[in-house]
Each structure stands twice: as structure tokens, then as C-alpha cells.
Design goal:
The protein has 338 residues and is α/β, with parallel strands linked by helices. It has ten helices and ten strands. It is 36% helix and 20% strand. Helix 1 (55-71) packs across helix 8 (274-288) and helix 3 (108-115) runs parallel beside helix 10. It binds aspartic acid.
């Protein structure tokens, strides 16, 4: 059963920015609900459930401009942070299903049900999938002056200093949290975790030396790794990342169990008219074929998904598979939902 919808207000702390203005008329909050023919007749909001400046936000802002151009409308990106991405996702689950509130989420959509007793939304029932966007490798990174020199040294160091080493993440349900869980399970340690509203601010603290290490997407860490402001120990994909050729994979570094890529997708509330979902998916495909988007993603260690994956059906099938996969991995790791 769908939960009661809230009016289109999203958390007061939200930060907003207008991405682009094309030909569509901006008539504020009005507009015919579910009118696919004239869509879009007002601003479309893409909710990012993490902080501005972080990796989910970065990918969203890359595609918002070309998507808006393809739709002939305006797109606003709104950051609704909290609880590992579940606050923003919950807001979109309860929004009007009229195509004007869209969610950008990542792998956390498939892991949160295994991590929360009462999530407040159901990934498959409360959302319609629009399309996959990208799949981003993670890096295991540390403050530049953190003692361990290699990934193997890191494992030895955290085992010997479990009481004092700090591990940053973006809250329970975030990709950084998941990667941290897998790391701790594989290393057999329990570390002190420091949650942030997103890995944008976590990275700032890592550069500043306030926390010791974390996992995060290459879309956030690449620049700081290359500038030698942080140390990179490993990438969490089976192959090395082209833009970070010197960084070994976790498998090469002796921890093949730490394997995770952060897939992203766009969602709208369930019951959004299928014609509107199709228009959004078409605009997503156009944005992902944009050479500027491809180039920006390549610089940050990732790439757009294929046109076939930027579709509602492919996205839904992936979500279904990932929900099953992560439920098992998380429970096998002995993690209890909180
Ligand atoms: N990378 C973050 C995570 O750990 C989210 C973000 O700030 O985009 O899920």
C-alpha cells in the first residue's frame, strides 16, 4: 500500500540550484498533474539524497543540464540529506506522481532494506524506475599523512589500532557505509565510524586530516588523489581504473571480498504516468550520449551506461537483482538491521 503523500515540500535544509533554462514556461508549482502531452510545464526537481558537492550530486549535475535541454524545460537539483540517503528517497516515494519530482539514487536503494528495520518506503513498490545512469568504482582513501603505505599495511594498521582509527561514511545505507562494512568484515575488525550527510563533507575532513580513511566513488576522490591531497590504497572493481592506473584493485591487494561498484539510477514515485517516465528516460539517454558528459565522466573514472540500460525495464531488473544480492551479502556479514 502506498504511503500518504506529502505536498511537494522537501526538507527545509535542502539546498537548491537552478540548472538550466530552456524553452519551457516556468509556472511555479501549478500545472496539470500527469499531463504527459504538455510535460514539462513547470520545473522538474531532481532530489539528490546526499550533500551538494559529493559524488551523487556531481553525477546529477552533469546530466541535469542536457536532460533539461532534451525535455525543453528546467531542472532544479535539490539536496535532501540524511540517514544514508533514506530521507531524500522517502520524500520522493511520498511525492506527487506527476513527473516533477525525480530521485537520483545509487546502490543504496538496494542495500537500505537490509540495513533498516523500518525504512518507510519500498524500493520496488513505491518507485517507478526511469533508467540506470552510471556505475562508479570506489576507492579506499586516507588522509595524506596516514601512516600505512599500502593496502596491506592499512589492514595490519587498523587491526592493531582498532580503538583509535576513524572511518568516515555518509550514514547507514550509503555506499561508503556498505564498502566500510565489507572492509571491516573482511579484515575482522570493528572501527569507529564517523557519519556525514554525504561524502562531499567527509572528503573535506579527510583532506583536512580530521578523519583517517574512507571508501568513496572515484567521481569524488579522483581530483584529490591526483593532486596528492589524499592517499589511495585500492579501487574496489575487478579491473584497475583507467584514470588512476597506479592504484591496485582490492583483489590484487589481497581482499577480493571487497568488491563493489556504485550504480546510479533515476526514479519517480510509483503511479507516475508511463508516458512521462518514457519522456524522462528518453532525455536521460540523450544526456548520456552527450560528448561533454562522456568526457567529464571519463575524467572521474566512470562512463555512462549503454542506451539499453538507461531504460525503465533494465533499471528495474537490475534493482530486483541487487536487492537480492545485497540482502544476502549483508546478512552473511552478520549485520543486523537497525
Ligand atoms: N558517496 C556517498 C555514499 O557514500 C554519497 C554522496 O555523498 O554522494 O553513498
Amino acid at each position: 500500500m502506498r504511503m500518504k503523500r506529502r505536498p511537494r515540500i522537501i526538507a527545509a535544509l535542502a539546498t537548491v540550484s537552478l540548472i538550466t533554462a530552456c524553452s519551457g514556461n516556468d509556472d511555479g508549482d501549478g500545472g496539470a498533474e500527469g499531463d504527459a502531452a504538455g510535460y514539462p510545464e513547470q520545473n522538474i526537481t531532481i532530489v539528490v539524497p546526499f550533500s551538494a558537492g559529493g559524488p551523487t550530486d556531481t553525477v546529477t549535475r552533469m546530466i541535469a543540464d542536457p536532460m533539461a535541454a532534451a525535455l525543453g524545460g528546467k531542472i532544479v537539483v535539490r539536496n535532501v540529506e540524511g540517514a544514508g540517503g533514506t530521507v531524500g528517497a522517502g520524500d520522493v516515494a511520498r511525492a506527487e506522481p506527476d513527473g516533477y519530482t525525480v530521485l537520483m539514487h545509487h546502490i543504496g536503494m538496494s542495500t537500505a532494506p537490509a540495513l533498516y528495520k523500518d525504512l518507510g518506503y519500498r524500493p520496488l513498490e513505491d518507485f517507478a524506475t526511469v533508467g540506470l545512469v552510471t556505475e562508479v568504482p570506489m576507492t579506499v582513501v586516507a588522509r595524506q599523512d596516514f601512516a600505512p603505505a599500502t593496502f596491506q599495511d592499512l589492514v595490519t594498521h587498523v587491526k592493531a589500532n582498532a580503538g583509535t582509527v576513524t572511518l568516515a561514511n555518509a550514514g547507514i545505507g550509503a555506499a561508503s557505509h556498505l564498502c566500510g562494512l565489507l572492509f571491516q568484515a573482511a579484515a575482522g575488525v570493528k572501527l569507529q565510524e564517523v557519519p556525514y550527510q554525504g561524502t562531499g563533507p567527509a572528503l573535506t575532513d579527510l583532506v583536512g586530516g580530521q578523519v583517517d580513511f574512507m571508501c568513496d566513488q572515484t567521481t569524488n576522490t579522483s581530483g584529490q588523489i591526483t593532486a596528492k591531497k589524499i592517499k589511495a590504497y585500492a579501487v574496489t572493481t575487478p579491473q584497475r581504473v583507467q584514470s588512476l592506473p597506479d592504484v591496485p584493485t582490492t583483489a590484487e591487494a589481497g581482499m577480493p571480498q571487497l568488491a563493489v561498484s556504485v550504480w546510479h539510477g533515476l526514479y519517480v514515485p510509483a503511479d507516475t504516468p508511463p508516458e512521462i517516465v518514457e519522456k524522462l528516460s528518453g532525455a536521460l539517454k540523450t544526456a548520456l550520449a552527450d560528448q561533454a558528459v562522456i568526457d567529464q565522466m571519463a575524467k572521474l573514472g566512470t562512463a555512462p551506461v549503454t542506451a539499453a540500460d538507461a531504460t525503465p525495464d533494465a533499471h528495474r531488473a537490475h534493482l530486483e537483482e541487487q536487492l537480492t544480492t545485497w540482502q544476502k551479502i549483508i546478512s552473511d556479514a552478520g549485520v543486523q538491521p537497525s
